[in-house]
Amino acid sequence: MPRRKTTRGLPKNISCPQCGKRFCTATNVLQHMNQPTSSCYGASLAEEVGLLASANFLEGAVHRETSRPREDAEVSGTHWYYNDEDTDMGPPTADVSVRPDYDVDPTPAVNAYESQREQLSGSRRFIETYEGCAEMFPGGETFMDQFRNDRYAEKRRENIYFPWASRQEWEFASWLLRSRLSMAAIDNLLSLEIIKSVPLSFRSAKELRSRAETLPPGPLWLCETLTTEYPTKEPPLLFYRNPIECLQALLSHPHFESHISFVPRRVWTCAAKICRIYDEWLSGDRAWSMQEALPPGATLLGVVLSSDKTNISVMSGNRMAHPLLISLANIDKHIHSKTSLHAYLLLALLPIAKFAHKNTRVHSLLQDRLVHQALNIVLSPLKTAASVGIMMSDPSGNLPNTLAAIHTACSQSSPTDYMNFLKAIKPLRLNGVVEPFWKLWPLSDPSDFITPEVLHHFHRMFWDHDVKWCIAATGAVELDFRFSIIQTLVGYRAFNEGISKLKQVTGRDHHAIQRYIIAAVAGSVPRKFLMAIRALLDFRYLAQAPSFTMRSIDRVASALQEFHNHKEAIVSQGVRADWKIPKLELLQSVVPSIRQSGAVMQWSADITEHAHVEEIKVPARASNNQNYNSQIVRHLDRLDKCFRFDLATSLEHRVNKEGGDEDSSDLDVDEEHEPDAEKIHPSDYSSPTRRLLNYFSISSSLLLGARPSARKPYCTFATATTAFHLATKPSLRLTVDEAATTYQLPALEGAIATFFANGDTCFQGREHAMNKLYIWHKVRVQQLSYHDRNLLPPQTLRAIPPASANPYGRYDPVIVGVHPQSDWPRSGLAGHSVSQLRIIFRLSRSDLFLAYVQHFNIATNVSPATGMHLLKRAVGGNGQRVGEVIPLTRIRSPAHLVPNFRRVAHSHLTSLSSYELSNDFWLNKYFSKEFYYALSLT
Length: 938
Description:
Elements: E1 14-15, E2 22-23, H1 26-33, H2 39-49, E3 80-83, H3 112-119, E4 125-129, H4 143-148, H5 153-156, H6 167-178, H7 183-190, H8 193-196, H9 205-212, E5 221-225, E6 237-241, H10 243-251, E7 265-268, E8 276-278, H11 285-292, E9 303-307, E10 310-311, E11 320-328, H12 333-336, E12 345-350, H13 360-378, H14 380-390, H15 401-412, H16 418-425, H17 446-449, H18 454-474, H19 476-484, H20 507-521, H21 527-543, E13 548-549, H22 550-566, H23 568-572, H24 582-586, H25 590-597, H26 606-621, H27 628-659, H28 667-671, H29 695-703, E14 716-718, E15 723-725, E16 732-734, H30 736-742, H31 748-758, H32 766-769, E17 773-776, E18 778-782, E19 795-800, E20 810-811, E21 813-817, E22 832-843, E23 849-858, E24 870-873, E25 883-887, E26 891-894, E27 897-899, E28 920-923, H33 929-936
């Protein structure tokens, strides 16, 4: 009999405005109206946005303008629309049922990947778009229009690969032009007899490059000699491109077309507009307020600039470049984050001058002024465009704070009196620049456009301060030993020599150390000291989320406040004297930046730092080490022409191929079946990138019979939340007794018998089949990200028996669903257990993949010092570890454990024995951000 609902004594005085049903509280009414299965859901939403007459609204019939395929949808008469998918701002899609997880049957639903994305996409989104902006007008020129209107367009009507004779010749020429071969090496290659036998239209490197110069160009490079206020050893040269042309190149890029938005929006979790969601730049408050300052119909483009010096000489030479990169904040952040898609373009190479002044501090002042002088030249077209756009609606007349400080410094000392001016600017925290490049740029001020940056403000600060505090408090020898005996999962960095003596540490190393630092120092430092370090690490992990709600923003602020509440313990430990840390002060701006500009991860310098390699270092090393800047821009210009030509000819070839066999009478049909831009991945024509395997899709294709030759049982299968992949051939073929001896599992045979006795799986000849096991040492598992349900890279889980090289074996910990329908990662540890994977096997004559796991007992409460669960091995009355056989599909996720070292780690432990000889562990939630979110945000 179902349990009777109770109101706990509260009267039902509040009615639903749609159906009249009565509830106890207003919260219950909102929950009822926001239930997708409720009949009041559609009516309340339609009433909220004035769409009662639009019956097809909830069916996903949201109008999308064809000129902006990725544009936020706008419904006639309103600026609201409904979205049922976290990762797409398009109209809602129909629900696809999801088959529940399986107890013993590993067969997934056919549409497991698509349906589980929809089922687990989190809260629904209601989007309010800015009305009356981003007006579009016909008559613009597309990327392909530029190609077809080139000066050699007539010749390309007969041969689209002109000036090359054929597609094959272009592919060969493209390879030569993109390679790092010198002109002499290319000449030697072309002089080979086997190459001479090939009919090529060019026979030298010079002729090859001259033909490349005739290809359709991108933004053109300019050069200008700057006049300095103090003599330099060499005249400074500024190489730059027109920023308007660079932005136009990004806007017209055919592969970015469906990934660019122009309309500011406010995203809510429900129609009642109670809780905001912040993710992309256009979802922040700043984009909305900037749009309000623009005339009606104007389009807001967010310009992203990144600049940092980088070394270009190898080993010696001390040669540096100062690149300036440009991109669009309107491009989706998941495109921004992929370096292979080249969403950042090199805009300029800023000059690095050598001044004749004797004082090095004056050198820095003069160099800063020179940089701003160059930026003012490069960015003047953008400032002009911005000024014209808001000339009639500038609401304020106040000077920004920074300009006011500069005015104060200039009133105290002349800017040309360098030594006295340096004294005047020191208390004002200025760098000596009198004419900053953003001075006449409307809606621009450093306090607004400089956002927190993850690579330096988070990871570098962690290495410079947190790690040093932990080394001082724990001791370098002890902390190095603890790091050296921590076992890591496949693909994760191990620190076999510790961390105190690391040199040339990169941002990736900083991130790797964060994974283990809390569990490593636990027990060796005072409780409040550890709480301060842990709170600061929580702040960093929470602030790196791809999207935020009001609740998650509060978590970020609370974590930082918790650090400040306990930071005096760090001073008391004697590892820090004061808190004059600029990067720590910058952390106060993270929460406001999220509200103003969206998720901070989209502004990380990881992408631009990597772009320095492709845009600066590789071209520089292909030069003759003379006049680096001029050779870099020439090299990039040639590569850009090759890229644009390759992209244009590929698209043109695809169109011609699809339309070549069609009869002229079918032209109207062809217009309705144009190539889908979504199917053309941007990485197809950019630098090589590793494609992410999709085991969910492979599993579905196997079930649909797309691979009839695949051996059964299929070694790739999936549940609603996790996909699995095993090697076709097992690692071992053993009897049950042999497997029990090899893996040191005396209870294995009894556990298998118990599994089949308690389950509903049976097959003929089970007793005979138990005499032979097919065993795998590894299994690949794939999950979906916590926030946006995108595919994550597969991870390898190991269950390797003891051997001479490793007498203790290697058994990885996993999260196991207690029930087949357990909801990972949304429910966290609720309904899940932590176990150690001991063996992966399948019985002969059975299609069911199984695993033997040994369980851990989980402490009820999270430790307030470490923020982690403490685990102990589950041991039976006979002193043996408790284990059981489960279907492999009950595994939800890899986990990571770190032994509880207490005050001093046992000196006899090694990286091979530390896990098998330990009984209690920390469930290390910091080993990955996705694992952290699953355990911390539930």
